[in-house]
Amino acid sequence: MRLLFLALAIWGAVHPMYWFLRHMRETGTGLGGLIDAWYVNASTTGLTWDLTIAAVTLTVWVLGETIYRKAWLNLLAIPATFCIGVSCGLPLYLWLRSRPAPGQVGAPRLFC
Predict the structure, then answer these.
(1) What is the mean pLDDT of the chain?
(2) I need a labelling partner for 92 at 20 to 30 A (CA). Which of 6, 46, 62, 72 fits?
(3) pTM for the full predicted model
(4) Is residue 80 part of a domain?
(5) Is 49 contained in some domain?
(6) What's the DSSP call for residue 99?
(7) Average pLDDT over residues 36-43
(8) Looking at the domain assignment, is residue 108 inside a domain?
(9) Is residue 13 part of a domain?
(10) Mean local confidence (pLDDT), 31-35
(11) 109 CB-near residues (< 8 Å, 6+ apart)
(12) In what helix (H) or strand (E) does residue 13 lie, and over which residues does it extend?
């Protein structure tokens, strides 16, 4: 599972970024134009809010579990989520979370 999570995190970083950069290159409007495009109609606005709520939910989960487990490296999922997207942040967090703890034999249970 760890390799699958890592592969999904990489795909979730590269694939959306390709489309974001393509849009900015084609329109010449940069990041501001990209953000404006997120609100161009009701469909994209709904999708933007859907992903924003998912990102906030993931952030709350990461913070809660990081504080409880004291696995500070897991916090890397938060900037990945807000700078790249949930498609990168969630699988990255699952990959980081699935690391065996020091002294633990085997991988931790992911689906309790």
Answers:
(1) 90
(2) 46
(3) 0.82
(4) yes
(5) yes
(6) S
(7) 91
(8) no
(9) yes
(10) 88
(11) none
(12) helix 2-27
Q: For residue 46, with 0-12 CB atoms within 10 Å meaning exposed, 13-18 middle and 19 or more buried, which class applies?
A: exposed
DSSP state of 84: T
Count of structural domains within the chain: 1
Q: How many residues does the chain have?
A: 112
Contacts within 8 Å (CB) and 24+ apart, 55-61: 55/81, 55/82, 55/85, 55/86, 55/89, 58/86, 58/89, 58/90, 58/93, 61/93
The tokens describing 14, both together, are 């590269």
> In whole angstroms, what is the distance from residue 93 CA to residue 15 CA?
18
Q: Where are the alpha helices (DSSP H) in 28-104?
A: 30-37, 42-69, 77-83, 86-97
**Range of 42's domain?**
2-97
